[in-house]
Structures are given as C-alpha cells and as structure tokens.
Amino acid sequence: MKGISRSILVLLLVVVALSLTVYSPSNVLAAKAQKAARTAKADASGAKQAKANSAFDVGKMSDMSGYDPATWVSPTGDTIKVAIVASFSGPSAVNGQLYWAAVSFVAHDINQRGGILVDGKKKLIEVIRADSMGKVDQAKKIAERMVLQEKAHVLWGCDGSHVMKVINEVANKYKVIALNASNTSDDIQTAANFGKYSFQGSFSADQVARGLAYYYGQIRKKEKKFYILCQDYGFGRVFAEGFKNGLKEFYPDAQIVGEDYHKLFLTDYAPYISKITASGAEVIFSGDWVPDAANLAKQLQQTGIKLPFANIWMTDANMHHDLGPNGGTDWVHVGPYHSPVPFTPAFIKFYKTWHDQWKKWTVKPYNSPSTEHYTVGLGGSWLMQTYWLFDLMERAKTTNADKIASLWEGDTYLQINGKVIKMRACDHKAIQDLSAEVSGPPAMQKATFTIPPYYWFKDASWPVKIYTLPAEKVLPWMDPKMDRCKGKNGWGE
After folding, report:
1. Alpha carbon of 141 to those of 85, 145, 155, 274: distances in Å?
2. Are 328 and 446 contained in the same domain?
3. What CATH number is associated with residue 53?
4. Is the dihedral of CA 159, 164, 166, 172 positive or negative?
5. Same domain, 311 and 361
6. Cα–Cα separations (whole angstroms), residue 156 to 74, 327, 423
7. In 3D, which of 381, 374, 378, 332 has the Cα closest to residue 357?
8. Is the whole-model pTM more than 0.85?
9. pLDDT digits (tens, 9 = 90+) for 324-382
10. At what angle are helices 6-18 and 93-112 packed, to 10 degrees?
C-alpha cells in the first residue's frame, strides 16, 4: 500500500495530539446562545452568499495543473508575506509539510490570478517556512525574525498550543495578524492570552466532546452505555470532562459505565478491554491518538469485540487500512469540516482540482493516503481559513493589521462545503457547524462519496453518514473573565 511511513505518521499524530496538553476548556459556556443557527448552501458556482459577508468562489480558481507542494517555489519581493511558524525540522517536521500544502496551494491559486489589490497595487503572496522546531524559545526567535527582518504580514500556525501562544504574543506586540488555523486549545483566546491581532479559526476539543454527546443524545438516540478510556494526561481527562458535561446537557438518560485513563504509549490493553467487556458498554469514548489508538483498536478487534469508538483523533487512514474494510464500522468522529452530501458541482470542481494533482505527486507525505482527500476534514478547514484570510485582505484592500482585524471581528464566510464560519468578535474564536461522521465499509461509502468511484477508500472504513451538528449546540467556550465578552451571548452578540 502506498503511503506515508508508519514512523512519520506516528510522529505527526503524536505532535498534533500533544498540542492539546496545555488545553483548558470550560465546563459551561459563559452564556447560552439565544440565536438560531446560521445555515447556508452553496450554489453551483460556490459563490452564493447566504447570511455570509463573503464566500469562496470556485469559479475564480486558476489553472492548478502545475501545482506540486514538494516543488512549489514562492515569489519574493514586494509581496504579501505569510510565515508558517511550525516544525519544519526534527521529529515533527511532517506538520510543517502538511501546513505548507494548505497555504502554498491557496497562494499558488491566487498568484496565478495575478495576486490581490492591497495598499494601492496588486501583490503576489509569498509563503515562508519559519521553523519553530516545536520549541517555545525557537518559536519566539523565529517569529520575531519573520516580523522584524522578513516583514511578514501574517504568522500562520501551528503544531502546539505552547507555540501558538508565542506566535500570538509576537503578533500582538508587533501588530501583525496571527491565524491559529489548526490548534484546538481553548485557553489560547482567553482573557489572559487575548490580543487584538490574534484569531482562532480552528475548532476546539471541548466542542468535539460536547458534539459527540449531542450526536448520541439528539440524533442517534440508541446507545446509552458509554465507557470512557483516554490517555492519562491533561487533554485526555479534560476531553472526558467535556463529554460528561455534554451528556448531562444533551443525553441525561445516558450512563457512564466505566472510566479509565491509561499511560501514554501503552502496548497491552487487555486489562482495560476486560473491564470494558464486563461493563456492558455499547460505545467506547476515547481521545486516543496513534500509536495508542491503533494498538487499542487492533487488540479490541483481535478479541472479536465490535464496539464502536466515539473519537476525535482516530482518523488515521493507515490504521483503518490495517483494521480492514469493516474495522471502523459505526465509529463516530466529530470534526470542523467535511464534504456536502451529495457533492455539489462547486465542491466536485474543488475536490478534483486537488485530487487530480495529488495523483501526480511522488514525494512523501504529499503522495500518501493522508493527503488524498485533503479537501475534506482538517485539510479542507485549513484551506478555507487561508482563503478567508486573503479574502479579508482583498476586501480591506490593505495589509494593515488594524484594518484587517477590525473587518474580521464578526465577519462571516461561506466555505466550499456550504457551511458558514463566523469569527466571534469579542474573543476571536470561530463559530461553525461541526460534522459527526459515521464510518462504514467501502460498499456503503457511496452515500457520502457521491461521485465515481463511489468510495473514499476501497479497503478501509470511512464516512458513510455525515450529520450536521448545529453551531449553537457546539459554540466555542467563552472565558467569563473576558471583559470584551461580558453581557454577550454565545454568538458574541
């Protein structure tokens, strides 16, 4: 099977998940939402604006036939400069590579169109690799260098909340925009850490935990017995708390029939599997990531037990291939972004624009299964957030951070999958519908992959049903200590 090496893939997921160790969500929102969900559907061009200030328009996309993230060369000179502050060396370098694919793809598209009119002239987008090495001291050093020497207009991040906090500090000190496109910590945009120029476009782990409770209690309405099994560190315990609080709100009839926390990088799950079996659990709730997630799933499969997982990070394509076409049946994953059902003409064009290029790539990790369907899931979210950022610049007609920040507060953007994302003005956190994705075998995947070959993968489980979790049910946590948000509802209004 083609794909990224196991060692690199493990390192990727370890680093992504470890970024949650500084994560600090709340138990309750500061104020409940009083406003109905904003919904929107894209038309065939992808440009229809329904309750959105602006929208991604696939009809404006350039010829992408020459794009390859492994060989793409950024323009230099009098440009709009975006620095990706992430790991580009060391054991987690694959993170920077995957981020590079998102930002360089968007930059290539816009540059092929001639750039963006800002500050009185059309400028191309320059993308710079800013290697944080995953370390706080290096992150500060490289971020300051990007701003002071390279004159970066945007700091884009990142793999690790500890690094994202440094990025935001530098951005707020020197008045440039910082976009947190990938980190899921809720403590990044708190009263203590908030800054005028920093924005969190990503979802949060707390939202996922509550979203899973909402799915089982308000949509699925079947299984009632849940066993919590998470890794024994900060994220694992707080993720579990989010789920328990979500059950109280959305599924009070549910039962937690067991709750355990295991050490990281465990190899023998037999004691936990025995307890799960004896508990009568119908679903295993887990925040585990590879390699723990893979070891747990494989050992559970070997016992013949077919309990599904409710999860946030168990989406590794290689793991699902190892489990076989039925191995992930009925697993439920909640994330920020997925494909419309059925695919719209606009989404088909966007999906194929990426996928047709992917088939030509020969360099890892870009030619692996982990990037084949990059336009959905996290990759799709990163792409849309980046397009949104440049759309803001184009509307503001400037690279001035003050003007961009003012425009971004409360702004709404229609993504290619038909979902509207809103930037909550008071704390700069993104509000959006989430997706609950239920996995199943290839023969059932045509229900969600609605174009030939009518499956995501031919030998692994992948989504067969996708449910929308309304934004007002999974609003991001709002810090009650933040003066800017006092007296406002969950929408920041």
Report:
1. 11, 6, 13, 49
2. yes
3. 3.40.50.2300
4. positive
5. no
6. 16, 36, 16
7. 374
8. yes
9. 999 999 999 999 999 999 999 999 999 999 999 999 999 999 998 889 999 998 999 99
10. 90
